[in-house]
Automatic annotation (TrEMBL):
Enzyme Commission code: 2.1.1.-
Superkingdom to which the source organism belongs: Archaea
Family matches, as CDD domains: AdoMet_MTases
Name of the protein in its database record: Class I SAM-dependent methyltransferase
Residue ranges annotated for the Methyltransferase domain, each copy included: 47-136
Biological processes per GO annotation: methylation
Keyword Transferase: yes
PANTHER family on file: TRANS-ACONITATE 2-METHYLTRANSFERASE, TRANS-ACONITATE 2-METHYLTRANSFERASE-RELATED
Organism per entry: Halolamina litorea
Keywords: Methyltransferase, Transferase
Length: 202
């Protein structure tokens, strides 16, 4: 099942122009709005959005934050994000290449809040752990993760995600990785049995 970063990047670049319209599920809307609400940046703070895609979360946070940095592996998705930022007139948002385990944070940025929505499940569980360690190394005061995450094993055929490209972790695996990386999980909201939002503080 495992796909390379290049495979994921190419797949998302192909669908970039239609991506926003396709995000019409209740679960996506619920997780996205909870991530934005929990991120709650102060006006002087810097937010890093990993797996930013077309910038849904980054752009929603731009009016509240001082600076927003969106990182993704797909040039097509990043191009859509930049187009939307320009159309909205958000001068404090920048989008560029970066991946979970190498987020490519600008040298002059001091990141306060890291967010990620519907993206980390593309990594295998050991890679998610490495990604969480890389996020901890950035030393944010808060990390908000919205994603496909399983409250229990899902029987074959009942997955709401695509098992051929998606590799969601259980909530337990994510909470353990966050705790091992020095975060305190202050809130966990499950959306059905296959999605959720975790709020992790330092
Ligand atoms: C389903 S989209 C979610 C986009 C956005 N966060 C949202 O809420 O609409 C997943 C995104 O994760 C990106 N992605 C996949 N693997 C990644 C990785 N290892 N590092 C950074 N981004 C990745 C994809 O290119 C894609 O844009």
């Amino acid at each position: 099942m495992k796909r390379s970063i290049a495979d994921h990047a190419a797949r998302f670049s192909e669908i970039a122009e239609e991506y926003d319209e396709a995000q019409d599920s209740d679960e996506y809307a619920a997780c996205a709005s909870m991530v934005v609400e929990a991120a709650d940046p102060r006006p002087e703070e810097t937010v890093l959005d990993l797996g930013t895609g077309t910038g849904a979360i980054a752009l929603a946070l731009a009016p509240a934050a001082g600076r927003v940095i969106g990182r993704d592996i797909s040039e097509g998705m990043l191009a859509e994000a930049r187009r939307k930022a320009e159309a909205a007139g958000h001068g404090n948002v920048e989008f560029g290449e970066g991946r979970f385990r190498e987020p490519n944070v600008p040298e002059d940025a001091d990141v306060d809040v890291v967010v990620s929505n519907f993206a980390m499940h593309h990594l295998a569980d050991d890679e998610k752990r490495e990604a969480i360690d890389a996020i901890a190394a950035i030393d944010p005061r808060r990390f908000v993760l919205g994603d496909v995450m399983l409250s229990a094993a899902i029987p074959e055929g009942e997955e709401q995600y695509a098992p051929e490209v998606d590799d969601p972790a259980t909530v337990g695996v994510l909470v353990e990785a966050l705790t091992d990386a020095g975060f305190v999980v202050s809130d966990a909201t499950l959306v059905g049995d296959q999605y959720g939002v975790l709020v992790a503080d330092r």
